[in-house]
Design brief:
This protein is an alpha+beta fold and 136 residues long. It contains 3 helices and 8 strands, in the order βααβββββββα.
Amino acid sequence: MIDSENNIEIRYDEVDKMGYVYHGNYAKYYHISRTALMNQVGICDRELEKQNILMPIIEMHIKYIKPVFYGDIITVRTTLNEMPKSRMHFFHKVFNQSNEIINEAESTLVFVDLQSRRPMRIPDTVINKLKSYLKN
């Protein structure tokens, strides 16, 4: 298992008229934490792009439990539990300042060839970097 925790302070422009964090912003928060997790194991978007590899999200499920407000600090915990076969499944839990869970989500990414825009196998370079953290 690999995990990453990131603290994010909620900005004024991220809340809606009700004063809650706009629901669409959570995808951005998950992205921040997912990128930190990948960087932690030596996998960088910029390096993948140099190899003509992209990682788009193909699926995301979110369960909202409690609202978050302007000025709150949230903790986004992202986990990768298993060695990917054809897709990478990330699990996200978001906590408020009182350590209460406010939402949880799952996002699924695939590897795509930059030129053809077609799905591709997970590159060996990625698998090799994940091996020391994950079991097959």
